[in-house]
Write a structure and sequence with these properties.
There is one protein chain. By secondary structure, the protein is an alpha/beta fold. It is 32% helix and 20% strand.
């Protein structure tokens, strides 16, 4: 009996329990070393990303021509989304604002996703419209490409800091969709409540992943869950798209009375309750007189009814004597509201996903746990529009990137395993060349576009705390901007030393010979001469105060105060600002 008590106490000390220590008594998960996990993000070394041009791809001329002819990238929403991008060349900071034909829109990163996410934040914080992740489920199964047999507390320690970072990438109207199964769904839900806010939880989607029961199981699981959270639930509600009608739903629309407006279906013209101004008598076309059924009233007041009647938008049955129903026309239908039950008939299943993978990679090299392209298509249809930016930090075999590309969305994919090269790169090259598997025919995909491939590079600061050799101006500028403002930097306002203005504060940086003058009196030191140049670069920009980064300043504190300048030293203040 004592042994049982000891075991039970140990389990409570180890396992996840709910405590009311959160803000406003919100439950929080507690597990072994959870305090380290909650502080893990700040301890991640900030690295830069280096492009490997041998693995990037822009496709062949035929695919690009087909993409142009098919006009696959709708211009709707693209210009606004693309203004939100950052820059990339030999390292990520040098990118330009993407154009539809440029492969800088899409990036594939090979490396630990915690380090990669931290490296991407200065360029993409607050710019991602939709995040989809399919993390290891911690089911006790061992997959070749993922460690899916992690100790429970280890799994939580892996997921918490990554989710914390992912939230920073979301736009205010952005959303994150997380595939998970029964083993960790409950814990994932409470963890996400803490990170994203319970008020920003939208729903749990149930995806029917199987087509038949697993006869080996005690009770076969037929589904997985997809948790949906937002950065701001109200803003997401405003932009959430409806789903297009499928063939079965469209078939409901008929035209028995040859209405010139085309096929229609009908909806109930009554409403629950009793309202005096909605209890009038209706005379049908056949002369019959009808009142609302007991306990109900008409849906509209009499003036609205008379308008609908005059416009012949009411249906009284084939003999014209029935209770009226309101016509809803197929031509006026903008779609259907998504709901939480996603059948395998609508969005695919595990076997469909494996078949797609087998075609891409062969049966001997197929990814063990892929998702069907139709499932990701459903998510991106609801959450994004053409030109929006999509992120998947557990890219796996590349399904999210492939679907986003085919649907005209821009994408960022992160994968730590070698299958970033053996699967993701291979798959995306095939997509760009116009492969016709998955959703290709449904979205009229013919190929085109491209992507850049990045490896995690050296730390921004070396072991001595100095800026690493070879760090380019725009790279450091982006990191300083992000640390100061909590927003990403796109370089659109930059002019010489001037980085831009945020919330009334202007930022300038003297670094790496930006003035093409490495002498003591110029270069990276703030002097009367460099101050004049900074003022010229700032020009007519409106601001309340000016912050200047540099190696040192030769201006006195009184002179800085008089000029309304706050000086910050590199690299010291880069380290201490965040």
């Amino acid at each position: 009996m004592n042994m049982r008590k000891h075991i039970f106490s140990a389990l409570i000390a180890f396992a996840v329990v709910l405590s009311l220590k959160g803000e406003k008594d919100m439950p929080k998960l507690r597990w072994v070393d959870d305090d380290k996990s909650r502080n893990a993000v700040s301890n991640v070394v900030m690295k830069i990303l280096r492009e490997d041009k041998s693995l990037g791809y822009t496709g062949n001329g035929l695919a690009a021509k087909n993409a142009e002819n098919a006009k696959l990238l709708s211009l709707r929403g693209v210009s606004e989304s693309r203004r939100e991008d950052s820059k990339a060349s030999s390292n990520l900071s040098n990118s330009k604002t993407p154009s539809g034909e440029s492969n800088t829109d899409n990036i594939l990163v090979h490396g630990d996703n915690l380090e990669a996410l931290k490296a991407l934040l200065p360029f993409y914080a607050g710019r991602v419209k939709c995040i989809y992740i399919d993390p290891p489920y911690n089911t006790g199964s061992a997959f070749e490409h993922y460690d899916d047999n992690l100790e429970h507390s280890t799994w939580l320690n892996i997921m918490y800091p990554r989710l914390k970072l992912l939230r920073e990438f979301l736009r205010e109207d952005g959303s994150i969709w997380i595939s998970i199964d029964d083993d960790e769904q409950a814990y994932m839900k409470v963890m996400c409540d803490e990170i994203f806010g319970r008020q920003n939880f939208v729903t749990t989607v149930v995806w029917q992943k199987r087509t038949s029961p697993d006869m080996r199981a005690i009770m076969s699981d037929a589904h997985d869950f997809i948790l949906l959270y937002t950065k701001n639930k109200e803003q997401f509600k405003e932009i959430r798209n409806q789903l297009p009608l499928n063939e079965e739903q469209a078939a409901v629309y008929k035209n028995p009375d040859n209405d010139p407006r085309g096929p229609w279906t009908s909806t109930d013209f009554t409403a629950q309750g009793w309202r005096p101004n909605q209890m009038y008598e209706i005379v049908t076309p056949s002369g019959a007189k009808v009142l609302p059924p007991e306990g109900r009233c008409w849906r509209h007041v009499k003036e609205v009814y008379e308008r609908l009647y005059a416009e012949q938008r009411l249906w009284f049955g084939s003999d014209g004597s029935g209770v009226p129903r309101k016509k809803v026309y197929l031509s006026e239908c903008t779609g259907v509201t998504p709901w939480t039950w996603w059948s395998n008939k609508e969005v695919g299943h595990n076997q469909e996903a494996k078949k797609e993978n087998n075609v891409l990679f062969g049966t001997s090299n197929a990814f063990e746990t892929p998702k069907p392209e139709r499932l990701i298509q459903r998510i991106l249809t609801i959450a994004t529009n053409p030109g929006d930016l999509v992120l998947d930090s557990f890219l796996g075999s590349g399904t999210t990137a492939a679907v986003a590309h085919k649907m005209g969305r821009r994408w960022i994919g992160i994968e730590m395993g070698e299958h970033a090269k053996t699967h993701c790169v291979v798959r995306m090259k095939k997509v760009i060349d116009g492969e016709q598997g998955g959703i290709s025919k449904a979205v009229n995909w013919h190929g085109g576009g491209g992507f850049k491939f990045y490896e995690l590079g050296e730390p921004l600061l070396d072991e001595n705390g100095a800026i690493s050799e070879g760090i380019e101006y725009d790279t450091l500028a982006a990191h300083i901007w992000w640390r100061e403002t909590d927003t990403s930097w796109d370089g659109s306002m930059r002019k010489g030393t001037f980085l831009g203005v945020h919330d009334g504060v202007a930022y300038a940086m003297l670094y790496n010979g930006v003035l093409h003058d490495r002498s003591y009196a110029g270069g990276n030191v703030l002097t009367p001469k460099t101050m004049r140049i900074i003022r010229e670069d700032v020009g007519n920009a409106k601001y309340d105060r000016l912050i200047v980064y540099g190696e040192c300043t030769k201006l006195s504190s009184s002179k800085l105060k008089e000029a309304n300048i706050e000086f910050r030293q590199t690299p010291y203040d880069i380290v201490t600002r965040r």
